[in-house]
Design goal:
Strand 8 and strand 9 form a beta hairpin. The chain folds into 2 domains: about 210 residues, Spore Coat Polysaccharide Biosynthesis Protein SpsA, Chain A; about 160 residues, 60s Ribosomal Protein L30, Chain: A. Helix 3 packs across helix 5 and helix 8 runs parallel beside helix 10. Helix content is about 25%, strand content about 30%. It is an alpha/beta fold and about 400 residues long.
Length: about 400
């Protein structure tokens, strides 16, 4: 019986994606990208085992991403993709498969049809890779000036999974150790293996930058827009300044609160949580819990944003209104907008911060404190028309 193992490579750090979390562990459709890729192979009837290759610093992230999935214990990767693949192949030597499929965790939208086409290609060739013919006109350029038009008739964009007979691709990778090659097909070509092209899939895109996710639609998903509202109040007390929407402002008083008393961010946190039905700031960060004493309110906002991302959603627009007689908000409004945008990892143009007064009426009019209200609009995925809940 032919035995097939899928080697899923997710040891990269994803620097071009941005943020502290490697891209393969970012949420999409309520699950990490890595999980999407692993499940496609774990659920395929012709794949006998799935061997992940990860960066061992990401072990806790990996365990979360693979909870309940039938995959092998991970192998630690190397400094390059090529080295990570070689380590994964070597690890399989104790029980060598007949065939191996090598796939990038950053391609989460691979489907069973594509896997089957690659496996079929191995029936008559030493390797098989999915690819899409180049349709754009190509130009050779020197110093910003076109030299010539390149014939595209023989050019293809190659994807993964790339399939090979196990012993042959292991030997090829051993022979190519120390060389710099862009994919496993190049490694195979280096030792003269015959590699066939099978039809690729335009949905099987590689996620490289954050904007790549925004260009995709989760297969089987419908979308809806939700709006949440937040309101908060803090009274003035002793101090020489306040923090509003993440910006420190000199003032003859401070705001009283268990955390840093950033009334604008507290209202914003409630607005975002409200948009995804995730209760309120007090439930997630109880004022009775001493760990939040003096904490920066950006922690609360970023937590609320993650609640949106867990639904495969994104924050579309934020509007914060600060209500006070003093201090003056106008000179700091742009800095506040930029600070909020940075916390949420969205464009500043999606954030608005403004101020108003109550014409000296009420507690804000008497200068006893500051109030804030916020509205958040988010877009979330309804996968297979069934709402996901936190």
């Amino acid at each position: 019986m032919t035995r097939t193992v899928a080697l899923i490579v997710g040891a990269g750090r994803g620097h071009r994606f941005g943020g502290e979390t490697p891209k393969q562990y970012r949420d999409y459709g309520g699950e990490q990208l890595f999980r999407h890729a692993l499940r496609a192979f774990a659920d395929h009837p012709d794949v006998d085992a799935v061997q992940p290759v990860i960066h061992l610093d990401d072990l806790s992230l990996f365990e979360t991403a693979t909870e309940g999935l039938d995959v092998m214990a991970p192998v630690g990767g190397g400094d390059s993709r090529q080295e990570s693949v070689l380590r994964g192949l070597r690890h399989l030597q104790s029980q060598p498969p007949d065939r191996v499929l090598i796939h990038d965790a950053a391609r989460p939208f691979v489907d069973h049809g594509l896997i089957e086409r690659v496996l079929a290609g191995l029936d008559s060739h030493g390797g098989a890779v999915p690819a899409i013919p180049v349709t754009d006109t190509l130009k050779a350029v020197t110093d910003g000036v076109i030299d010539e038009t390149v014939d595209r008739s023989r050019l293809w964009r190659v994807q993964t999974p790339q399939g090979f007979r196990y012993r042959e691709i292991l030997a090829a990778h051993e022979a190519a150790a120390g060389l710099q090659m862009t994919d496993d097909a190049a490694v195979a070509e280096h030792v003269g293996l015959s590699v066939a092209i099978v039809d690729g899939d335009s949905d099987n895109m590689k996620i490289t930058r954050a904007e790549d996710l925004k260009m995709t639609e989760l297969p089987g998903a419908n979308w809806e827009y939700r709006t949440g509202h937040g309101f908060d109040v803090h009274r003035f007390g002793d101090g020489d300044g306040v923090i509003l929407c993440g910006v420190e402002i000199a003032h003859d008083q401070g705001l009283v609160g268990h955390s840093d008393a950033d009334v604008g961010l507290h209202a914003l946190t409630d607005a975002i949580l409200g948009a995804v039905g995730a209760a309120d700031i007090g439930e997630h960060f109880p004022p009775s819990d001493p760990q939040w004493r003096g904490a920066p309110s950006s922690v609360f906002v970023e937590h609320a944003a993650r609640a949106v991302h867990k639904l495969g959603g994104e924050i579309v627009n934020i509007d914060v209104t600060l209500i006070c007689e003093k201090p003056k908000i106008g000179p700091n409004r742009v800095a506040m907008r930029d600070a909020v945008a940075a916390m949420l990892e969205i464009a500043p143009g999606r954030v608005n911060v403004k101020a108003t007064t109550t014409e000296r009426l009420g507690f804000t009019g008497r200068g006893e404190g500051i109030a804030a209200q916020a509205i958040a609009t988010v877009r979330v995925a309804l996968v297979n028309c069934t709402e996901r809940r936190l």
